[in-house]
Amino acid sequence: MTSNAYADESEHTEDTLQTVRQNLAEKKAVLVDVREKDEWDQGHLRGSILFPTSLLGDPDAAKAGEKLPQDKILYTFCAAGIRSVVVGERLREFGYEVRPLRPGYLQLVEAGFETAPDESP
After folding, report:
1. What are 105-115's pLDDT values in tens digits?
2. Which of 12, 48, 88, 110 has its CA 20 to 30 A from that of 96?
3. What pTM was computed for the model?
């Protein structure tokens, strides 16, 4: 892999949040929360799937990734946008179509993405 290809793959998606919402509504995509379980427990987005960054250190990370749908776009997000890219790169290696989001959890909530029931950020 050339350094240019690596740079292209390690960037945040250019999809707008409107496009993200549309893809979610049309069931073409899912949100993947790559924050850790303790962060998730403090609040998470409705319908998102937890895939903590710490799973990448697990030798069975590919097996853990099997709970993610292969036929949908995975929009990864975290708290600040850095882990979303790191996990996105690894999930691509497992064959997923990943589009890391730059906005973090709180920014997504502020943009109108719903939290899971009975939770607030």
Report:
1. 999 999 999 99
2. 110
3. 0.86
Distance of alpha carbon 99 from alpha carbon 97, whole angstroms: 7
Architecture, CATH, for domain 3-110: 3-Layer(aba) Sandwich (3.40)
Is residue 96 within 8 A of residue 70, CB to CB? The reply is yes
- Looking at residue 32, what DSSP letter applies? E
Contact 54, 80 (CB under 8 A): no
Short-list 70, 67, 71, CA closest to 33: 67
Q: Hey, what long-range contacts does 38-42 have (CB within 8 A, 24 or more apart)? A: 39/79, 39/105
Surface-to-core class of residue 76, CB atoms within 10 Å of its CB (0-12 exposed, 13-18 middle, 19+ buried) = buried
Other CB atoms closer than 10 Å to residue 103's CB: what's the count? Answer: 19
Q: How does pLDDT run across 17-50, given as a tens digit for each residue?
A: 999 999 999 999 999 999 999 999 999 999 999 9
